[in-house]
Design goal:
Elements lengths: L3 H12 L5 H8 L3 H13 L4 E6 L1 H4 L5 E7 L4 H9 L4 E9 L3 E5 L4 H11 L6 E14 L11 H8 L15 H12 L5 H8 L3 H13 L3 E6 L9 E9 L4 H9 L4 E8 L4 E7 L2 H11 L6 E15 L2 E4 L2 E2 L5
Helix pairs in contact: 2-3, 2-7, 9-10
Length: 327
């Protein structure tokens, strides 16, 4: 179980993932050595990692897709493991409800989407059927989901080390930036000295490159911790069918909901996908029956409850922690 100080540290890193140990210590009113030890322990226990969330257009041509997979009886576990190994699969989970396996995939090129969706995924042993939705626009992503534990004063201290992105042109990413993207994706807290050594650049050049990459929003550092470790033991992917005139309004409301880790407008049989986390069944019931009820235009919804998370943001998971090796 994570302690209250552990949760405070995670909440601080959610606000400022690259904040120095000194700034984290100031915000949390503890010593820098205590923060350093706590951070190392959480990383060594495979509970926490700070990674870099790469902007879609810098990673691939085309947007991600949600994929629901039905399997033959008894084959969901083996099929999910096989599907999780696909390099295009960002997220893979065994689910109950709408499907047996849920995937979020990002294909490097639109031309490869047909092969993945029509041949490679259906060709996995045990897969009986698939259904996919194309993401048109994401209204919120996991980097914006927060534990609301810190005071306004604490948040102000942390905000000193926040970098606010101002947008970028995917065609204007240089070769050194592309190499840096790979480093930041694996370690969102990498220092200029570490990046410089890896890239063969001076520390000052690496620093300017990191700041430019973050400021342009090419990479957004974020904390990766399984929601169950934070007390959110129930996760679900909810596909909503909404009348066209209400799609934007409903999606906007869902993006502001405390449960929202990822909300997207999609093209397919559904209109909006809400990936949410809940502390328990009662909290999810309140969301479905109370919070959704006033929203206009919702005509249907389908729920897939996550039973086991195998991969999230290309990192393998095992019993709520990062897997030490590929399955």
């Amino acid at each position: 179980m994570l302690t209250e100080p552990d949760l405070d540290l995670i909440a601080a890193l959610q606000i400022a993932p690259r904040a120095s140990v000194a700034t984290l210590a100031e915000a949390l009113d503890v010593s820098a050595s205590t923060v350093g030890r706590r951070l190392v322990r959480l990383e060594e226990q495979r509970i926490l990692r700070v990674i870099g969330q790469v902007e879609w257009t810098a990673r691939a041509r085309g947007n991600p897709r949600h994929v629901w997979v039905t399997t033959e009886p008894g084959a969901s576990g083996s099929a999910a493991k096989a599907l999780a190994r696909f390099p295009e699969v960002q997220l893979a989970a065994e689910t109950a409800g709408r499907s047996d396996v849920y995937l979020a995939v990002h294909v490097p090129d639109r031309a490869e989407a047909r092969e993945l969706l029509a041949e490679r995924i259906p060709g996995v042993p045990g897969v009986a059927g698939t259904h996919s939705e194309l993401v048109l626009r994401a209204l919120t992503r996991a980097d914006s989901w927060r534990l609301h534990r810190l005071s306004e004063d604490q948040q102000k201290i942390l905000s000193r080390e926040q970098v606010v992105p101002d947008g970028f042109d995917a065609d204007d990413v240089g070769p050194d930036e592309r190499r840096l993207i790979g480093l930041l994706a694996g370690n969102g807290r990498i220092t200029a000295a570490e990046a410089g050594r890896s890239l063969g650049l001076s520390q000052s050049t690496a620093y300017r490159l990191i700041q430019s990459t973050l400021r342009r929003g090419i990479v957004r550092p974020r904390v990766e911790v399984e929601p169950a470790q934070l007390g959110y033991e129930l996760e679900a992917v909810i596909a909503l069918t909404i009348t066209p005139g209400a799609i934007q309004a409903v999606a906007g409301e869902l993006a502001r909901h405390p449960s929202a880790r990822y909300v997207s407008i999609v093209a397919g049989t559904a209109s909006v996908i809400h990936q949410g986390v809940f502390r328990n069944e009662d909290e999810m019931a309140d969301f479905l029956t109370r919070d959704l009820a006033p929203l206009p235009g919702i005509t249907a919804l389908q729920v897939s409850v996550v039973l086991r998370m195998l991969r999230r943001y290309w990192l393998y998971r095992e019993d709520g922690r990062f897997a030490p090796d590929r399955p």
